[in-house]
Amino acid sequence: MFEKKYSIRLFIESDLGKDVGVVLDRPQSHYVATVMRKSEGDPVALFNGRDGEWLGDLQEVHKNHCLIHVKEMLRPQEAEPDIQLLFAPVKKIQTHLIVQKATELGVADIQPVQTARTNSERIRPEKLALQALEAAEQCERLNVPVVHGLVKLEQMLNALETDRTLVFCNERLTGNSAAEVLPGLVAQSSKWAILTGPEGGFTTEEVEMISARPNSHSISLGPRILRAETAVMASLSLLQAFCGDWK
Ligand code: SAM
Question: Which residues line ligand 1 (CB under 6 A)?
Fold first, then answer.
């Protein structure tokens, strides 16, 4: 049976390779030394989004400073599906949940979008990025999704690459179930974006603007109106199952 060789997995910025020494920053050192109570010689897994996943041993352990000796590669870097999440932020706890779950579900890029009915507190992209980083460490991804600051819906639509297939979660749609629409899109695209709306839904003008964008495909997530965070998780799961790395 597969047995994990480590109980701590950390994202770091620096390069990874055999016999490299990695110095952890203060928050990571505090986590390793004080929270997890690790000692010299204990194993730690490291990844940086470029060089794969590596196993190292703790050589020095202090609450402000830890040194890791990198020993062996556990997994090479692999390409992941190119999925962008475009979502209207909701309340703080649910927005953090969206970022955490989207990371676990394999998105590459997270873009909060301001719509007419977006009713959220101020977005703190750096806090959301930390949430994404912790989720990536926990779920054994080899990279961390990029989290952007809030942009207006129209600005986002103008900036979206034309060859990126936009999957628009439209709660007022009849027909166009995700299970019917998504399989038909697989052959035409390798770049995806999922768009979900705020608690109040999209306005009629917004629905028209989104639908008018070339390469935009509306989907229904069934007969019930889902909460915004549920819609993100359901749509990403379906996209991964039909078009992504769950196939
Ligand atoms: N207040 C809106 C209404 O009653 O029409 C509902 C908005 S819903 C809470 C938030 C977002 O989740 C929607 O804008 C949509 O993107 C997505 N969503 C929720 N249920 C959906 C469904 N059944 N099909 C497609 N998208 C859905």
Answer: 169-172, 196-197, 199-202, 220-222, 224-228, 231
